[in-house]
Amino acid sequence: MRFHWMALASLASIFAVTGSASAREADDDHGGRAVYVLSNDAGANSVLVFDRARDGSLHAAGGVATGGTGSGGGLGTQGALTASRDGRWLFAVNPGSHSVSALRREHDGTLTLVDVADSGGDLPASVTESGGLVYVLNTGARQNISGLTFDGAHLRTIPGSTRPLSSPENVGAAQIAFTPDAEALVVTEKGTNRIDGFVVRLDGTPGDAVVTASSGQTPFGFAFGRRGTLVVSDAYGGAPGAGALSSYHLDDGASAHLVTGPLADGRTAPCWVAVADEGRIAFTTNAHDGTLSSFAIGSDGSLTLVESIATSIGSTSTPLDLDVAGAYVYVRDGGTQGIDIFRRGADGTLTSLGAIDGLPASANGLVAR
Questions:
Q1: Structure confidence by residue, pLDDT tens digits, 191-247
Q2: What's the whole-model pTM score?
Q3: How far apart are CA 278 and CA 177, in angstroms?
Q4: Which whole-number Å values give the CA distances from 303 to 105, 113, 226, 356, in the listed order?
Q5: Cβ distance 176 to 82 under 8 Å?
Q6: Could you tell me the domains of the chain?
């Protein structure tokens, strides 16, 4: 890891890097199993909590205020809510109040608000964390990335950490995330068909954006597969049947190099991406036809389409966030305002276990632990 901020050396005992979603579940004894969704309420934003039983079922367990306000509608991004790599913390954006919140996960899965800080821009819509560094993607008038440190009690702005994206115009930024080794940040831009990479310096500040043209159109959500492979959904502006996934390797300068893509899944508007099985399988939600597709990720980062329709959600033209926790896949369905639950078989097939309703129409983001 390139980041070695002296003031945060004591965090080694707080933040620990773990592996895949299934490995994280096996190792995460710090908190009860739960699924979390950001309400994004324009009056008082909150994180909604759903207890997760061993059979994958969910039970509503209330929520906790983030200390900020939401936008009251869709954000068009992935990562509005994210978990620290060790599962001890959640970080949430407050688009309406231009801030970000840190929440502690208790042993029973409930949450406690710890701190709230300015996001360094307008309309924060995606957030990522690694080793005590928190970076926010701001998508409003002051669109940029901006960084903070988190020591388990306080979020503090990192001086000199704010960087512009590839253009001063509205680029339609969709997600920010650290690479698995935390040596770079990645941002996708839907409006410009670009992928931005930012090398993270020793002092925690990023370099200038290194811009790569996306192989497909409308790069949206992404996740990291085997050996740090960057797997990106290509939504193609929602054109019917035109959706695809692409994979890239990132070099030391944060430039993305195409491995596979765009590899079509034959579906419409793939947006959110999650990986499973130690980075060997990628799932993407096809938001405009209510399906999930699955892809295999090779050891060289190459992609192979496994199932164009791994499962159907039943709703169309609706936001679909997803996450993977061990043997289960959870999808926030913006059509039914609920969470659809699926069990993953040994062969990768998905079996529906039903759904739980009750989400507000403004909800965004989903984290399963």
A1: 999 999 999 999 999 999 999 999 999 999 999 999 999 999 999 999 999 999 999
A2: 0.91
A3: 18
A4: 35, 40, 11, 32
A5: no
A6: 6-368 (2.130.10.10)
